[in-house]
UniProtKB/TrEMBL annotation, chains A, B:
Family: Belongs to the class-III pyridoxal-phosphate-dependent aminotransferase family.
Any Gene Ontology CC annotation: mitochondrial matrix
Keywords: Acetylation, Aminotransferase, Disulfide bond, Iron, Iron-sulfur, Metal-binding, Mitochondrion, Neurotransmitter degradation, Pyridoxal phosphate, Transferase, Transit peptide
Annotated catalysed reactions: 4-aminobutanoate + 2-oxoglutarate = succinate semialdehyde + L-glutamate; (S)-3-amino-2-methylpropanoate + 2-oxoglutarate = 2-methyl-3-oxopropanoate + L-glutamate
GO molecular function: (S)-3-amino-2-methylpropionate transaminase activity; 4-aminobutyrate:2-oxoglutarate transaminase activity; iron-sulfur cluster binding; metal ion binding; pyridoxal phosphate binding
Signal sequence coordinates: none
Top enzyme class: transferase
Name of the protein in its database record: 4-aminobutyrate aminotransferase, mitochondrial
SUPFAM superfamilies: PLP-dependent transferases
A Pfam family hit: Aminotran_3
GO BP annotation list: gamma-aminobutyric acid catabolic process
Function text: Catalyzes the conversion of gamma-aminobutyrate and L-beta-aminoisobutyrate to succinate semialdehyde and methylmalonate semialdehyde, respectively. Can also convert delta-aminovalerate and beta-alanine.
Length: 537, 537
């Protein structure tokens, strides 16, 4: 059922009854039968709210029209937002106070009812149902409570995978390689057939750095064996056992918050303040002017300037004995404000790494998993020579990194930790990738992304004082607002209208919907946001 | 049923039928009914092997006698090891080759059948069943396929927790604080009522370091606000935004493998070689002589020497502007060789940290969770003033750290990442802690540990050329062998006799059984190991 269509209690009950694998719905139905009068009264109130909400959305004049849904649809999804209180509501506020007694809870937006959350909709503890365009900081691949994943959990033969977490590096389960092939290797970037799993994005980048340092040192060593001096000095953190290598990163980049990664993260001061760091080189990331077609020459110059600086830094740091062993970059700088560069920029950067013998590490923690319309955002670049290392996490459910054969550690226990990821995440990822392939979700991301981007450009044309620099690839879209106060206000209003948005950089709003975000969700959002902009003071 | 008791097919079938929550057994039973002849033939062969194994164990003269089992027993446990092939067997070797095509698989011991693994027994893909005294590098709290955890997974209301992984720092589930209270806070070290969850041990230590650096900087700052210069310089990894603070660690310590942790890890060269590091102070850890009662004075002097060195390093590093903000230590250095120090040593170290204004960070990643007979190993010390920060992971199923109120970050997003742990792990931990309390597993660890230690001391008396420095607390026991070749050979032989052991340091064997390891498991192991030592050439 699409937003704006008429519907009644019978439809709703039918919808609940036919939702596959959702126990909570069935429980709700039983509850309805048992306590029918009270429940129907409550239900009717909800429906009224929802209809009011929807009718208000579709009432005013100049607006985008919701299109017909695609054939392949998300039958476990809700029909639209349903708001009962402001957000955070009273129950969320109560829980925040409780949690704040245990840990700093100032970052909490609201508390969620994940059992009731489905598809593109996040339900909070006050019963508000919101279209979620942020999807847990871009980490939910195929929506909440996807029936395929719910089924996976219900299969008795899978229980053991969740209960018995192994030390994967020494005692892997029988199907470990098979699951890696079914999941990660089936979507591996071209040329990268080696893969390690890790527990999170930071660990993925940290271990990718380590693989790069080992690779570089082996190159330097030639065929010589490790010296006694190296073995002894590494134990006390000193040269030559611990060489003074560095990783070159870009201003505005975000690569994680553990101390190695953090030395390459430069998006916000709050991430870095008070934490000791390494003297590693930091290059400028291009600051493109929009619309791109109007600033072709300026943007080319800007990219050339940044690339030149990269080469200068490599030379400068080699001179001061802090050799650049690798360069890390995001295909789109996400936390730093959704900063894009041209495909050509990245191809040239790849050339520079080859020229200077540095590894090229592409951080796809946020961009990977299909949201740009390709499984990996860097596949848009058309590289001749693949990246050396590609890290992932978030929507991939497990962290880890792909790498070329030559980056394989030359002995056991060099890239190692107790868990090395979690087979239960590999199991779920294999199913997620099945769903992505079966439902053609990469093409969906391209298609829905076009609808979203076109709508944003339209809004930008109508509200240029509020929206600028509209940009995106697939559903990985964003725009700038005049300042962070306006940005935060827009996010707060949208939330109270039933849309969860995320900010990034100092004034941007980023879109990070799940892969089952469809055209009609884009239109639903655009209609709501159009009203917000029209009323904005 | 105890090892050595007589038993038949009917008993085994009954045992399988009554195992609660183990689907694989039921499947096996169906298989038996369907293919009864073939199955009974196979079964009978297995039983014969098992009986041979057991009768051999209990045949020879001078040996420890298996005791009667305690009342509280592990009814889902197997009766003893059952070996069919050498380990790794043919199927494991085939899978190793397969995995080695994807990643360096040289560290793999063998491949496991986790569905068939239960209690203290790990079953491999060749059908070998081994008593597991290593428990996935000390990370399985209450044995394999524990019925309580299997049930938890089968409850429909829990499915969502496994399928919908939230960004805990911004959108926690309704029961987040409640689960933390039920689990982690119900066993919090005295005086530490604040807790953060993380995904693994390394992330726990990394974030504990960060909390310590922030705390120290705030102390230095007094009531002054953060300066513009700090905000700007931290973005480019420079002072004063990134101060030159350090964490003092001990030679032989292991605190993880990401770059911050790795700067405090000094157990083996292979962990550190080729990775850039920080110039942070490293103090000697006491090298105690055994038996302790014979070397009281020498050991006191050794501990005094180490403590003196700690103070000297604090002063020296302050002078060279690398202020020691905190000291990290394991209650028992695990990876480094199971090195113990006296409770008094740790109390004095705590005094030193207070005197010099450094934070005292106790790394309980391997020692925590009950195996020493107290929930946290440092609770044995009898500290007047609690530790400032205590990190955990492994048997706690989630990583994280407890800390005093004053180490709470003074703003949102300072200690933060996308996942901040995983509520599905908190859910399982809450159940694990229920089981620990219900089944009095801390007392069990003390009791079973005594049986194990007494047996090891007996073996040391009989085989002093093979076993020395027997030591332990609870089941967290270990001994030294003459050299790493002997150690590795003993581990390999034990494995082929049905016992999984782990090494640590350069020549030690460590015991890391689960918390449901009972006296009779200790005796079973001691019997097998006694034979191995008698035959050892």
């Amino acid at each position: 059922m699409r937003p704006g269509a008429s519907f009644g209690t019978a439809d709703l009950l039918h919808g609940l009854r036919t939702s596959p694998g959702i126990r909570c719905s069935l429980q709700f139905e039983v509850f309805l039968v048992k306590e029918s009068k009270m429940a129907l009264m409550l239900l009717s109130r909800q429906l009224t709210c929802s209809l009011q909400q929807n009718s208000r959305l579709f009432a005013c004049g100049h607006r985008l029209i919701s299109q017909t849904a695609a054939k392949i649809d998300v039958d476990f999804d809700y029909d639209g937002p349903l708001m009962k209180t402001e957000v955070p509501g009273p129950r969320s506020r109560e829980l925040m106070k409780q949690l704040n007694g245990i840990q700093n809870a100032e970052a909490v937006h609201f508390f969620c009812n994940y059992q009731e959350s489905r598809g593109n909709y996040l339900v909070d503890v006050d019963g508000n149902r919101m279209l979620d365009l942020y999807s847990q900081i871009s980490s939910i691949p195929i929506g909440y409570s996807h029936p395929s994943l719910m089924k996976l959990l219900q299969q008795p033969q899978n229980l053991s995978t969740f209960v018995n977490r192994p030390a994967l590096g020494i005692l892997p389960p029988e199907n470990f390689a098979e699951k890696l092939k079914e999941s990660l290797l089936s979507v591996a970037p071209k040329g990268l057939q080696q893969v390690m799993t890790m527990s999170c994005g930071s660990c993925s980048n940290e271990n990718a750095f380590k693989a790069i340092f080992m690779w570089y040192r082996n190159k330097e060593r030639g065929n010589n064996n490790v010296t006694k001096e190296e073995l002894e000095t590494c134990m006390i953190n000193q040269y030559p056992g611990c060489p003074d290598y560095s990783i070159l990163s870009f201003m505005g980049g975000f690569h994680g918050r553990t101390m190695g990664c953090l030395a390459t993260t430069h998006s916000k001061a709050i991430h870095k303040l008070d934490i000791p760091s390494f003297d590693w080189p930091i290059a400028p990331f291009p600051r493109l002017k929009y619309p791109l077609e109007e600033f072709v020459k300026e943007n080319q110059q800007e990219e050339a300037r940044c690339l030149e600086e990269v080469e200068d830094l490599i030379v400068k740091y080699r001179k001061k004995k802090r050799i650049v062993a690798g360069i890390i970059i995001e295909p789109i700088q996400s936390e730093g404000g959704d900063n894009h560069a041209s495909d050509k920029f990245f191809r040239k950067l790849r050339d520079i790494t080859r020229k200077h013998g540095c590894a090229f590490l592409v951080d796809e923690v946020q961009t990977g998993g299909g949201c740009t319309g390709k499984f990996w955002a860097h596949e848009h670049w058309g590289l001749d020579d693949p990246a050396d290392v590609v890290t992932f996490s978030k929507k991939m459910m497990t962290g880890g990194f792909f790498h070329k054969e030559e980056f394989r550690p030359n002995g056991p226990y060099r890239i190692f930790n107790t868990w090395l990821g979690d087979p239960s995440k590999n199991l779920m990822l294999a199913e997620v990738i099945n769903v992505i392939k079966r439902e053609d979700l990469l093409n969906n991301a391209t298609h829905a992304g076009k609808a979203l981007l076109a709508g944003l450009l339209d809004l930008q044309a109508r509200y240029p004082h509020l929206i600028s620099r509209v940009r995106g690839r697939g559903t990985f879209c964003s725009f700038d607002t005049p300042d962070d106060t306006t940005r935060n206000k827009l996010i707060a209003i949208a939330r109270n209208k039933g849309v969860v948005l995320g900010g990034c950089g100092d004034r941007s709003i980023r879109f990070r919907p799940t892969l089952i975000f469809k055209d009609h969700h884009a239109h639903l959002f655009l209609n709501i946001f159009s009203d917000i902009l029209a009323d904005f003071k």
